[in-house]
Design goal:
There is one protein chain. Helices cover 22% and strands 47% of the residues. With 126 residues, it is α+β, with helices and mostly antiparallel strands. A hairpin with a 5-residue loop joins strand 4 and strand 5. It is found in: Cytoplasm; Nucleus. Keywords: Cytoplasm, Nucleus, Protein transport, Transport. Pfam families: NTF2.
């Protein structure tokens, strides 16, 4: 009973893979999206694999490192997996910032892909 449910195993593996690619070579992230995928990045909408990879590849930093604080995964009624990630990131020599990211994963032809993704920095107007 100590084993994690399959959706947590898949979600955790996806999260580890995603941030490893993001931190080392963002151009390789195209493999996890499909043409119908949607990304909302800080309120900006992008649809399709090419548009998403273009956005992620053009982010204005040379190096980045993510540190995951927590992640939660849930199965959906239509056999997808909803994953929520909270963590911190450090881009170039900027200060460390908190972030929240949500993924909706779907199994297509034996592989898990990201159909929907939402990213926000944890910034507050004080």
């Amino acid at each position: 009973m100590g084993d994690k449910p399959i959706w947590e195993q898949i979600g955790s593996s996806f999260v580890q893979h995603y941030y490893q690619l993001f931190d080392t070579d963002r151009t390789q992230l195209g493999a996890i999206y499909i043409d119908a995928s949607c990304l909302t990045w800080e309120g900006q909408q992008f649809q399709g694999k090419a548009a998403i990879v273009e956005k992620l590849s053009s982010l204005p930093f040379q190096k980045i490192q993510h540190s995951i604080t927590a992640q939660d995964h849930q199965p959906t009624p239509d056999s997808c997996i909803l994953s929520m990630v909270v963590g911190q990131l450090k881009a170039d020599d900027d200060q460390i910032l908190g972030f929240h990211q949500t993924f909706l994963l779907k199994s297509l032809q034996g592989a898990w892909v990201c159909t929907n993704e939402v990213f926000r920095l944890a910034l507050h107007n004080v």
